[in-house]
Amino acid sequence: MYFLGIDLGSSSVKLSIFDADSQQSIAAVGEPKSEMAMEALQPGWAEQDPNQWWENVKIALQRLQSEYQIDLTQIKAIGIAYQMHGLVLTDSHLNPVRPSIIWCDSRAAAIGDKAFEEIGEEKCHDMILGSPGNFTASKLKWVKENEPEIYKKAAYMMLPGDYIAARFSEKPQISKGGLSEGMLWHFKENRLAKEILEYYGISEELIPEVVSNFGDQALVSSKVAKELGLSEDVKITYRAGDQPNNAMSLNVLSPGEIATTAGTSAVIYSVSENHAFDKDNRINTFLHVNNQENENRNGVMVCINGSGILYQWLRNILSSGRDHIVDYEYLNEVAAQSKPGSEGLLFHPFGNGVERIFQNKEVLSGISNLNFNIHKTPHLVRAACEGIVFAMNYGFEIMQEVGASGKTVRAGKDNLFLSPVFKEIFVNTTNTTLQLYKTNGADGAARGAAYGYGHYKTLKEAFDSLECLQTITPQPALVEAYKTIYNNWKKAIKF
Fold it and tell me: Which architecture characterizes domain 304-438+468-491 according to CATH?
């Protein structure tokens, strides 16, 4: 018996097969092999074609079959994790009426700020635990205001993962967790935040059927099952945003537990039993995957847009004039050639849209203290790693202010956490113990599907076989050194 996990990112779509008998992931692929296209028609914009997501899912499925000899008919259920906060608008036949406005697109920030002011700060904090900000609801309002003809064509609004689920099932749905990610969930009353829709003048009819994160959400349609080589009884049993899913993938389910990721963006995510919020809206609170009406489980999250995308940018810059793109292992080796502090070079990684930790203000990115006689490539690469971690720690300090804290952080041994230098900077800057696990978002989504299907009695049971690969603890001397380096970096932030 197999369970399929899909992790829809902005760079690629990853698929994983979880074998219920061995309790292990037995196959994994990603499409495309290079990063997916992202269109920026104006500064601060970011769009992707939802059709390319679906095509990559189909290609990846066939690769599972051809490269790993996976019998696709043995898949019993599908779990879907996805890039958060995006907006997908479809017609009644589930065809996109425009490209998706994705998570790092900042065009709707001013709309959300105005809504926060006019609805009232206290009311917003009481209801949605923050500001409508630059999230899905505000992006929908932007379309209504700026593309009225396209808006009229829309029958449903969904988040990216809901669209993939709809392509499988031919049934439009959205989860409670997804609504919270879009600033459309009333936390205290456990319902759709109709007040936000009413303020924006958006019809409730655009909201499709609301489902829980786990359970029998929908059957894959017989037409699609036949096309893809699946059995006709395969179900969709789980969906969640990528960060709640990543936390679940690391068995971060209880208050005080913390997860982190450093992919295209960087995230620190803590589970809380409280309706926690920051009065300045620099962090966000969403429904965690295991939230229940009688047991609050909320995810308190800080997100840094300029993370892996900075490392990707560096990779491309350093590949200029070569006949091949340098790999990330090369960057890691180069970074290790510089000492902590990068000889005074400071990198501020704020070049991928407005940053939530600065209240969606424009923050200047770039390099400070550059000395042409001292600084070489190793200093540049290490300063980039330090800048990413320092930005994460800046957000972590805000989380601690609202009571979302802990001394142990879990991460998958993936992306930037493959870099020894990055890991060293992280544990000594945050002064936390880092546990690295053999898992990823697609694997977590597959385990989530298994639980939603009923294969496991409890969610924790689904992660009993999770393997910890490495534990890294802070070194007192480096903790002290990084305090000074970090404070210098913080003082150099420019608005």
Answer: 2-Layer Sandwich (3.30)
pTM of the model: 0.90
Tokens of residue 437, six digits: 């696990």
The predicted-structure confidence for 276-335, as pLDDT tens digits, reads as follows 999 999 999 999 999 998 899 999 999 898 888 888 899 999 999 898 889 889 999 999
Distance between CA atoms of 445 and 428, rounded to whole angstroms? 31
Domain positions in the chain are 2-250, 304-438+468-491
Same fold, 2-250 and 304-438+468-491: yes
Closest Cα to residue 345, out of 495, 488, 478?
A: 488
Query: Could you tell me which of 238, 224, 244 has the C-alpha nearest to residue 300?
Result: 244
The DSSP result for 369-434, as a single string, is S--TTT--HHHHHHHHHHHHHHHHHHHHHHHHHTT---SEEEEES-GGGG-HHHHHHHHHHHT-EE
Enumerate residues 6+ apart whose C-beta is below 8 A from 158.
Answer: 88, 89, 90, 166, 172, 173, 174, 178, 208
Cα distances (angstroms) measured from residue 226 to each of 15, 229, 353, 445: 19, 5, 41, 23
CATH no., domain 2-250: 3.30.420.40
